[in-house]
Design a protein that fits this description.
two-stranded antiparallel sheet, five-stranded mixed sheet, alpha+beta, binds FE2/S2 (inorganic) cluster, globular
């Protein structure tokens, strides 16, 4: 499990091992953008403000990965991520 802090809404959420970050975030931010939920389409790209990401997508370049993550598939290697949501 890891924690996600949402910078704009102020939510602090726990993501269990058997759920995606997107799934947990959607409960609190229903308007969050997504489509494929498999790391291919690019819709759920989200800026990462702090923390270390374990990238599992198939769409971001290395340059994009420095500041963004796909929240439908990627996870954290740090205990906390702070996202621009
Ligand atoms: Fe398509 Fe995340 S919803 S890459």
């Amino acid at each position: 499990p890891f924690h996600i802090d949402l910078a704009h809404s102020g939510h602090s959420l726990q993501v269990p091992a058997d759920r995606s970050a997107l799934s947990v975030i959607r409960e609190h931010v229903p308007e969050v953008a997504y489509s494929c939920r498999q790391g291919f389409c690019g819709t759920c790209k989200t800026r990462v403000l702090a923390g270390e990401v374990e990238h599992r997508d198939h769409v971001l370049t290395d340059t994009e990965r420095a500041e963004n993550m796909m929240i439908c598939v990627s996870r954290a290697t740090s205990q906390h991520l702070k996202l621009d949501l």
